[in-house]
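Not sure how to ask, but would you mind making up any protein sequence you like and the tokens describing how it folds?
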Amino acid sequence: MKEHFVDLTDGTRLSVRVNFGTIYYLQKQKGFYRIQKKAGKNPKSLTQGESFKIAADVIYAVLRSNGKNVTFDEALSLVPPDPEQVEQVLQAFQEEYDKYAKKKQAKTKVKP
């Protein structure tokens, strides 16, 4: 199994894992699904601000689901400034989310 890590601006490495808590915290973020839908259609159409916001949403949700108490502003300050690293954050999250969605779908199909 491939682990995805993100290097944050404070020097820590964040392991990107998706669980129920991550999905819960993302649902609480305003505008996340609107931007995610736009990114799903054409990832290159995102502005730099939208890319940073969605990366901050992901970092916030992952940190909160790992039990750390952070605010959105703190998560925004932890977003890597390099656009390529932001893209890696989003790609790693998408891969982990797809795995989570497949597991959840398989569980619902198994139950009679």
Remarks:
- The radius of gyration is 14 Å.
- The chain has one domain: 5-87.
- The mean pLDDT is 82.
